[in-house]
Design goal:
Largest sheet of chain B: 6 strands, mixed
CATH architecture of the largest domain in chain B: 3-Layer(aba) Sandwich
Largest interface: A-B, 39 and 50 residues
Shape of chain B: globular
Number of helices of chain B: 10
Helix content of chain B: 25-40%
Oligomer: heterodimer
CATH topology of the largest domain in chain B: Rossmann fold
Strand content of chain B: 15-25%
Order of helices and strands of chain B: EEEHEEHEHHHHEHEHEEHH
Largest sheet of chain A: 3 strands, mixed
Radius of gyration of chain A: 22 Å
Strand content of chain A: under 5%
CATH class of the largest domain in chain B: Alpha Beta
Shape of chain A: globular
Strand order of the largest sheet of chain B: 6-7-8-3-9-10
Number of strands of chain B: 10
Distance between the termini of chain B: 41 Å
Distance between the termini of chain A: 62 Å
Number of helices of chain A: 16
């Protein structure tokens, strides 16, 4: 007992705990079948963790309420649709081996269209989403609070609509921009250097390790940024924009960096989900997705990195496991049937999430693992004044 | 701009500055200058346009007309962060700290313009970034001790500090950007006479030890008369008087602005 207590107070406690958790996560696939449904669920959960960490950077750190995060998911997925499938099938089609191939295995080599290695896709998604983030940021620079939410919401909707009608748009010769509500499919399997090409039909483990690695990298970047010059500038911006500007924080640059970095994380997640879901279509880009991710951030605790990880795990697990498998199966189902209720919880999943959020707001508004700072904000009235609007007329 | 007294060169000068909000002229045609290493006060009744004037000097407002120059550089309408980088720092009338950040973190934000770490350097935490972080943190602690916070308060969250300490923290944060000119907006508001006297002393010390030029808005006449070499009086957005404390005390229009016209009934 005393040994344990000693361990808990030592400076190694946190790294040790984190290391154990990571090791357990990395070894976990060996204890379940390669195609077990819990593998599928965990992969999705981790992809959502990456997404939520990105949104947390924008909403939690910099305090810019972003309701259009689905745009970055869309761009990430579309990057894989464009550059890792036969979508642009008439590119270079007259050549002896039609299409463009960079760093891909034998099977994609034989396909038409553009096929890039997964690492290139990730880099492409990061770049495109960072640029898109900066573009969505520009019109919001003069706005504050709720108005930012409205503009970002519109941005998300615009991207969704463009994707939906993309089958009518042919900006490059005869190539459709997207497939609209039809899927772009199949997407190339992930093919990492020095490893065999993944195949999710036979083994999900490589996908799990890939997304785990992505999540760890994004987590690491989050921590590093939080404790940096930029991270402090973001938090200062959130607390008092006028004071931050007067202390030498360039507002435009700092805000755009928040949007760009947050967006890039969303793009990484999207670039992973493309090959994993094997489908890219406009039905995936709904407004509800933005709210879904925002719910993870709020449930876990705005601005708290571990809180957001937990929030993402819980909300995503609700979505991929609890609602379809627990609430809609077995005992609960038969109770509902006996009452003559014939709806399924999957149909009202957003109602379930809404209910959870309302519960949270009543019981624990600061989130499950609140950020040190936020905890304080809820604990007592802080010295923030409400005259933010006085300057910058 | 020179006031013709053979004073040292002006660090800050405004030339016929006007600020209008729609039809309301908040600051009207104010020209004035702050000589190097001086302590200058702006006084005036409530609503005289003092804070608006400050906000123009620090870039929060763009002047409608006129020019502002700092160290012989035109800074009219420049972004606040750029003006800070040039060497102008300020405090606010109603304290504007980052309430959930610790005292040290607040001051570290104040050094933003003097730091170079970029996004990639911060993620990789290169030796240069690491060194900079350590230096900035150390400097922040020093600045806080310099303005009179206790060691035990340095890592406390700003919102939990006492009112006087919050005021001191705000000054430390402003000093952290290594300014040449410090703008203090009613620094003694809410302080008792004892604390005000200490602050007056502190301003003198700042000038001599840090080579600072100080411009302050102040209502406490004891502080104003005790510390300033020159005083500018604003009323209804216009400059109605300017001079040393003795002159201002005797000025008919100043007395009128504060107390009303003599002989009116």
């Amino acid at each position: 007992m005393s040994g344990l207590r000693e361990l808990r107070t030592s400076k190694w406690a946190n790294p040790l705990l984190a290391g154990t958790v990571i090791l357990a996560a990395a070894l976990f696939p060996f204890f379940v079948g390669p195609l077990d449904s819990i593998m599928d669920d965990s992969i999705l959960v981790l992809a959502y963790v990456v997404m939520a960490l990105g949104l947390n950077l924008v909403v939690g750190f910099a305090g810019l309420l972003d309701l259009g995060f689905v745009a970055f998911y869309a761009f990430g997925l579309l990057v894989t649709g464009w550059w890792a499938s036969d979508h642009f099938s008439d590119v270079n089609s007259k050549a002896s081996s039609p299409g463009i191939h960079v760093g891909v295995g034998e099977f994609p080599q034989s396909l038409a269209g553009i096929h890039f290695n997964f690492l290139l896709l990730v880099i492409g998604a990061i770049l495109i989403c960072a640029i898109a983030g900066a573009i969505i940021g520009l019109p919001t620079l003069r706005l504050r609070g709720d108005y930012i939410a409205i503009v970002t919401l519109a941005f998300g909707e615009i991207i969704g609509r463009v994707a939906q009608n993309g089958d009518e748009l042919t900006p490059f010769a005869n190539n459709k921009l997207t497939n609209g509500r039809q899927s772009i499919s199949p997407i190339d399997q992930i093919d990492l250097p020095f490893l065999e090409e993944f195949d999710q039909a036979t083994n999900l483990r490589p996908y799990f390790w890939t997304v785990l690695a992505l999540a760890l990298v994004v987590l690491f970047v989050n921590f590093r940024l939080r404790d940096s010059r930029l991270g402090r500038a973001w938090i200062a911006l959130r607390e008092d924009e006028v004071a931050a500007a007067s202390m030498g924080v360039p507002l435009v640059r700092t805000k755009l960096l928040a949007y760009a970095t947050g967006g890039a994380f969303g793009g990484i997640s999207g670039a992973f989900l493309g090959p994993y879901l094997q489908s890219v279509n406009a039905n995936q880009f709904q407004f509800g997705f933005s709210i879904f991710i925002l719910a993870m951030v709020i449930l876990g605790g705005l601005g708290s990195i571990w809180g957001v990880v937990l929030g993402a795990v819980l909300v995503a697990a609700m979505n991929v496991f609890v609602i379809p498998d627990v609430l809609d199966g077995g005992a609960v189902r038969s109770v509902l049937d006996s009452l003559g209720l014939d709806f399924t919880f999957s149909q009202v999943s957003f109602g379930v999430f809404g209910f959870i959020l309302v519960l949270m707001m009543v019981l624990r508004p600061q989130g499950l693992i609140p950020e040190r700072r936020r905890k304080l904000e809820f604990a007592e009235v802080t010295g923030t004044d409400e005259t933010l609007y006085e300057a910058r007329a | 701009m020179s006031d013709g007294n053979g004073a040292p060169p002006a660090l800050l000068a405004t030339d016929h500055v006007v600020k209008a909000f729609g039809g309301l002229v908040a600051v009207n045609d104010v020209s004035f200058s702050v000589p190097q290493r001086s302590i200058v006060s702006i006084i005036g009744p409530n609503g005289a346009g003092k804070t608006t004037f400050f906000n123009m000097l620090t870039g929060l407002y763009k002047p409608t007309l006129g020019t502002i120059s700092f160290a012989d550089k035109d800074i009219t309408g420049m972004r606040p962060d750029k003006i800070t980088a040039l060497g102008v720092a300020r405090t606010f009338q109603n304290i504007r700290l980052f309430p959930t950040m610790s005292a040290v973190e607040n001051v570290m934000v104040g050094q933003h313009a003097r730091m170079r770490a970029g996004i990639f350097g911060s993620v990789l935490r290169t030796p240069r970034v690491r060194k900079e972080e350590r230096a900035v943190r150390e400097k922040a602690r020093e600045a806080l001790l310099y303005v009179g916070l206790r060691e035990s308060e340095l890592d406390q969250v700003a919102a939990n500090l006492s009112y006087g300490d919050q005021r001191r923290l705000e000054i430390a944060r402003a000093l952290a950007s290594d300014p040449a000119l410090l703008l203090l907006d009613e620094p003694t508001a809410g302080m008792n006479p004892n604390e005000s006297a200490r602050l007056t002393e502190f301003m003198d010390r700042l000038r001599s030890e840090r080579d600072l030029t100080i411009l302050l808005i102040e209502h406490d006449m004891k502080v104003v008369m005790g510390v300033s070499e020159r005083i500018t009086v604003l009323d209804h957005g216009e400059k109605i008087a300017e001079g040393d404390p003795v002159e201002i005390r005797a000025d008919e229009r100043v007395v009128e602005a504060y107390l009303g016209k003599r002989g009116d009934d």
